[in-house]
Specification:
Length: about 240
């Protein structure tokens, strides 16, 4: 029996002004930076730090889950971006396709199912302190259901997992990804509605949070010391 599983990490190439832009605006609004350029630099450093934290989680996860392959799905013209290649050392890389987030995720899932992966979970980079136990639980739940979601407090989700339902996989992917107002508080509700109106099963796991604002960041850095994040301004502590 084939038990191949895959974890996709959706991420952007870290560049100031192109990652964590809402967090950058929070730095500026809270007077923790003196210019938009400084805000973007702070947000870039946070994003880079999050990616490094996620890689450490991935290494730990792979040591526990031997039949797991990790794919870094990057949004960049480079192949792969050198900075991500350095952060996610020894991981596999695949480029994101064009289109909205749903279209890009659907193609990423589909490409791995064509490689005969049976269970695939996709995460982002906004929840670097996500417990590995949540991912393990997600993969286990996919033994008996079609899809699993880890919901976020903001109405989105921090991961979505889908089982390779062979002959109906295209319909299942459309159910999970179509007719969603991405990057809004309606994502989870709309996804649940799609499944309710379909023949496929969905299970919602424990709620978690994204880091999009200064308050989110303060919540996250409670587990660190100032020396761990020397790039952050003193006022944030």
């Amino acid at each position: 029996m084939n038990n191949k599983s895959a974890l996709i990490v959706f991420c952007k190439e870290p560049k100031p002004g192109q990652v964590k832009t809402r967090l950058a605006q929070s730095f500026l609004d809270s007077h923790l930076s003196s210019s938009i350029e400084e805000s973007h630099e702070l947000a870039f450093n946070c994003y880079h730090f999050f990616c490094n934290q996620i890689q450490q989680k991935l290494i730990q996860f792979q040591s526990l889950f031997k039949e797991l392959d990790v794919f870094i799905c990057f949004d960049s013209e480079n192949n792969p971006p050198p900075i991500l290649n350095q952060v996610f050392e020894n991981q596999k890389f695949i480029p994101q396709s064009k289109g909205n987030l749903g279209q890009r995720m659907k193609i990423a899932f589909s490409s791995l199912f064509k490689l005969n992966y049976q269970k695939v979970i996709c995460i982002g980079t906004d929840s670097p302190d996500l417990e590995i136990a949540e991912l393990i639980e997600g993969f286990h739940r996919l033994d008996s259901i079609d899809s699993v979601i880890g919901p976020c407090e903001d109405g989105g989700y921090y991961f979505i997992g889908i089982k390779n339902n062979q002959h109906q996989i295209d319909t299942l992917l459309n159910t999970a990804m179509n007719n969603i107002n991405w990057s809004t508080s309606e994502v989870l509700k709309q996804t649940e509605l799609n499944f309710t109106q379909s023949e496929f099963s969905l299970e919602i796991l424990n709620i978690w949070y994204d880091i999009d604002s200064l308050e989110d960041l303060k919540r996250y850095i409670k587990i660190f010391k100032p020396m761990d994040l020397p790039f952050l301004p003193k006022g944030i502590w």
